[in-house]
Structure formats: C-alpha cells, structure tokens
Design a protein that fits this description.
Bound molecules: adenosine-5'-triphosphate
Protein name: RNA helicase
Keywords: ATP-binding, Helicase, Hydrolase, Nucleotide-binding
Shape: globular
Enzyme class: hydrolase
EC number: 3.6.4.13
Strand content: 15-25%
Radius of gyration: 21 Å
Order of helices and strands: EHEHEEHEHHEHEHEHEHEHEEHEHEH
InterPro entries: DEAD/DEAH_box_helicase_dom, Helicase_ATP-bd, Helicase_C-like, P-loop_NTPase
Helix content: 25-40%
Number of helices: 13
Length: 347
C-alpha cells in the first residue's frame, strides 16, 4: 500500500492500528517492522504505538535506534520493532537478532525521505529484499516526488495507492502569510514583533543554518524570551531532551533547522515561522520541506499560522514558487502594524 495524507492527519495511528491487528501474540518473535527516518521520530512513533497497544497487553515493542544496545547473541522476542533504517538493518541482516522472513508487515513512515535519501534508501531496500513474499509493505508520507513514486511502485507490487492531488496537499486550516524585511536585524525585529503581539501557544522557528539558529536563539534569549534551540550538531540525547522540554511547554519557542521539519507532533504549536525559506540543493524553493515545516502546526484540524520572512528578490521568487506549486495564496503581513498583527489573534 502506498498512502498519502496531509501533515497532522493521523498517519501514525493508521499504520500502527493496521500493524497491531496483524500481530499474533502467541508468537514471541518480531512480526512488524516500522522504519522512521530519524531517532526522534522513531521514539515518537514508539510512544504512540505503546499508547495504542496498551489495550493489547500481550503485544510487546522494541526500539531499534542508536543507544539501544543488544547482546549479539540475544534473540528479539518483541513482536513489533520500531527503529531507524541503519539499526534495523544491523539487527536483522548483520547480527540476525530476529528472523526477517517472519515479518509480515513492513512500514516505511515518511516514505518520501526514506526513499529519496541515499543512505536510508539503500538500507530500506536491503531489508526489503530479505522479506518474505507474503509480507505486506506499507508506505506513508504527506508528500511523494514523482521519482520516489515510480520507485515505490517497483518495491510495492500491485499497490493499493491512496494519493492526494497537488492542490489538496496544503491544508486550509493553516493560514499562510509573509513579511518583507531588508536585513537580518529587520528580520529579527519582525519576529520579535510577531512574538510580542500574536498570542502564541507554542511556536517553531525554522532557520536555514545552525549558525543562524544559534544567533537567533541567543538574541531572543537576551530579550528575555524562553527559547529552546534544536540543531543537528547536538547529540541525539540532547535533542530528545530539548524536544521533551518543548513538549512539556517549558519553552514556548523552538528554534531549529530542517532536522525538525518532518513528523514531529506537538499539538500546542500554533505558529510556524520560516525565518529563512527552505531551499533545495539546486537553489530553488524546497516546496516539500516547506509543506512539512508548516505542517508542524494545524495538527489534526486545529487552526495554525505560518509566517514567512522574506528578505530580497531571491526569497520573493522562492515565495512565488511555493505559491505556484501548491496553488495557494500567501498573504502579505506588515510586522510593524500592531493592529494588523492583533487581527490574526481574532481570525
Ligand atoms: N482519530 C483521532 N482523533 C483525534 N486525534 C487524532 C486521531 N488520530 C490522530 N490524532 C492526533 O493527530 C495528531 C497528528 O497525528 P500524526 O502525528 O500521526 O500525523 P501525521 O499524519 O503522521 O503527520 P506528519 O505528516 O506531519 O508526520 C496527533 O497528535 C494525534 O494524536
């Protein structure tokens, strides 16, 4: 099955329910393999799985991620393994901690990334090749590139395909705006104004580089805001600690880079700010990442706000590319106009 559904619409519950219903609890060995692209997402998915599985006490879960040690000789008895591709590949093919032929459900969450990123792609395929012919393969994602889709159809023979049209991919419940600035300092002041005026549940601010993210977090902290910083150069345990504090509402604003763009589900996030618009390797607007980023708000039908800060002709072009791609207008906002900002609270 190849399934697509918008960000925050509950794909996790869908594949977990489908997976749990296929577990035979009388058999003490892995029957379901769920792969996530990152450590954080694997943990989040495992938490959802455990919550949903609490009504079937006999189903046991195992996390296959960095830091989860196993003895080489140990055989895994848990029926559901949730992990990242590298670790799952090691445990299954290298150390043979379980019999991959006995897996009857294989799920690739965030399938687009799993297939598009070279390292993940190779690992997923190597595991996939060893699965039995009867194993059901399920791919879930909010977006699919055509290339990825073509490839997905090769690895999933005769798939049931549930797809969205392009214009259905972006959600109506997320209102999108842009603010025009001329310099980094103006961008900072726009963000500060937005933060001061809009009543924010919690916000995620995306930057292009780790450097900008730390600069911004330092500057906001100096202004007295309680902000958290999450970037790729932190250790995985540091990243989890930051996310947990954010989930608990200890900080209202999370400043991050693309590491946090996909899958992370924090219900109270009401605003996403693109301090920098996402750009792909060809130097064009990265529409897919844009969609995943703004999808951190507006979870499961809630109202969300996405504000894009642009700073010159190049980013204006990116914004236009994003508008054209999704066929949805992004409205101009004056970050100096307090009345206009306040109106957003009421709308
Ligand atoms: N049936 C439901 N009723 C109420 N809330 C639900 C239901 N199903 C899922 N949710 C909630 O919706 C939120 C989003 O779910 P989830 O993280 O699975 O979305 P997703 O489709 O995987 O999003 P993304 O594409 O961003 O990864 C979660 O907080 C989840 O608890």
């Amino acid at each position: 099955m190849i399934a697509q559904s918008q960000n925050g619409t509950g794909k996790t519950a869908a594949f977990i329910l489908a997976s749990l219903s296929r577990v035979d609890t009388s058999k003490p060995f892995p029957q379901v393999l769920i792969l996530s692209p990152t450590y954080e997402l694997a943990i989040q998915t495992a938490n959802v799985a455990k919550q949903m599985g609490q009504y079937c006490q006999d189903i046991k879960f195992c996390l296959a991620i960095k830091g989860e040690g196993t003895h080489r000789g140990r055989k895994i008895k848990e029926q559901v393994i949730i992990g990242t591709p590298g670790k799952v590949m090691d445990w299954s093919l290298r150390y043979k901690l379980f019999d991959i032929q006995k897996i009857n459900v294989y799920v690739l969450d965030e399938a687009n990334v799993m297939i598009a990123i070279q390292g993940h792609h190779d690992q997923c395929i190597r595991v996939h090749k060893k699965l039995s012919k009867e194993c059901q393969v399920m791919l879930f994602s909010a977006t699919y590139d055509q290339e990825v889709m073509d490839f997905a159809e090769i690895i999933v023979p005769n798939p049931v395909v549930i797809r969205l049209r392009k214009e259905e991919e972006s959600l109506e419940n997320i209102k999108q705006f842009y603010v025009v600035c001329k310099s980094m300092d103006e961008k900072f002041s726009a963000l500060s104004n937005i933060y001061g005026v809009i009543s924010i549940g919690q916000a995620i601010v995306f930057c292009h580089t780790k450097k900008t993210a730390s600069w911004l977090s330092e500057k906001l902290t100096k202004e007295g805001h309680a902000v958290a910083l999450l970037s790729g150069n932190m250790s995985v345990s540091q990243r989890i600690a930051v996310l947990n504090r954010f989930r608990d509402g200890k900080e209202k604003v999370l400043i991050t880079t693309n590491v946090c763009a996909r899958g992370i589900d924090v219900e109270q996030v009401t605003v996403v700010v693109n301090f920098d618009l996402p750009v792909d390797q060809k130097g064009k607007a990265d529409c897919e990442t844009y969609l995943h980023r703004i999808g951190r708000t507006g979870r499961f039908g809630k109202i969300g706000l996405a504000i894009n800060i642009i700073d010159g002709p190049r980013t204006t072009i990116f914004l236009k590319q994003i508008e054209d791609h999704f066929g949805r207008k992004i409205l101009k906002l004056d970050a100096e106009d307090v009345d206009e900002l306040e109106k957003l609270n009421k709308d």
